[in-house]
Amino acid sequence: MLKKYDADGDGDIKDNNVDALIEAAERATTPEEYSGIIKQIQMQLFEDLPCIPMGRDRQPLARQKWTRLGYEPKSTMVYGYAMTEKTAILKH
User: Fold this and answer.
1) For residues 27 and 40, what is the distance between their CA atoms, to the nearest angstrom?
2) Rg of the chain taking only CA atoms, in angstroms
3) How far lies 17's CA from each of 4, 25, 46, 65, in Å?
4) Which residues contact 63 (CB under 8 A, 6 or more apart)?
5) How many other C-beta atoms lie within 10 A of the C-beta of residue 30?
């Protein structure tokens, strides 16, 4: 038996479409029907539940001290520096 989920987080599992899909999966008579319903459940949960990254990609990011970005990077997910009208290459 599959576990029922409170996808909208209100403490009530009766109003979720996922519950009806779980019950339909339990009644499925063929592997193809079961697989199709499980895919629907996965897509519904994908849309309803928050996304939490399981890992982070850490890459060293460096720049010359004579480069002024014009802003301070504030994200932990910086993959590169954005060049804007405030970016300047200082005399070196």
Assistant:
1) 15
2) 24
3) 11, 13, 13, 55
4) 69, 81
5) 8
Mean residue pLDDT of the chain comes to 76
Residue 92, CB-side half-sphere exposure with 13 Å CA sphere: 8
Q: How far apart are CA 66 and CA 69, in angstroms?
A: 10
Structure tokens at 89: 């290459």
Output phi, psi for 28, to 5 deg: -60, 140
**pLDDT tens sequence across 17-57:** 787 888 899 999 999 999 999 999 888 877 776 665 565 55
* Contact present, 25 and 2 (Cβ < 8 Å): yes
